[in-house]
Amino acid sequence: MTYFFSPISAALPFVRDGKLTALAVSTAKRSSALPNVPTVAEAGLPGFDYSLWVGLFAPAGTPPEVVDKIARDVRTVAQSADVKERFAALGAEPMPMTPTEFKHYVDAEIAESAKVVKAAGIKAQ
């Protein structure tokens, strides 16, 4: 038996075709693309929550008004019916955030990853 963690977008076609069996999703809540598949927490590891996410970054020093405009434009596009439909087909679930919210999210992700690295005894090479 082989198992692995895969982004839903990569595994979904195989799950739908019956070529893969989804055992759990790694996020805190069930995926709308796989509503009958439990979360890892529901499957026996309470508190487990790992999301694959993608974000848009700008170079340091980009004027705040430019960052805000890009954020508004991306949010508008992400809320369009076509994009929502495409995201849903891929099993992707948008997490709209302001630039400030995104910065806090990324900072929290870095802090959480640092804990994992420290607990695993991983050293820089």
Q: How many beta-strand runs?
A: 0
Helix content estimate: 40-55%
Q: Give the overall pLDDT as a whole number.
A: 93
Low-confidence stretches: none
**What sort of overall outline do the alpha carbons produce when their principal axes are compared?**
flat
Structural class: mainly alpha
User: Kindly, what is the distance between the CA atoms of the first and last residues, rounded to a whole number of angstroms?
Assistant: 33 Å
Provide the gyration radius in Å: 17 Å
What is the succession of H and E elements?
HHHH
Figure out the total of helices. Answer: 4
Major beta sheet summary: none
Q: Note the beta-strand portion.
A: under 5%
Report on the structure:
The protein has helices at residues 8-16, 64-78, 81-90, 99-120. The chain is mainly alpha-helical and 125 residues long. The model has no long low-confidence stretch (mean pLDDT 93).
Which features characterize this protein?
125 residues; mainly alpha; 4 helices
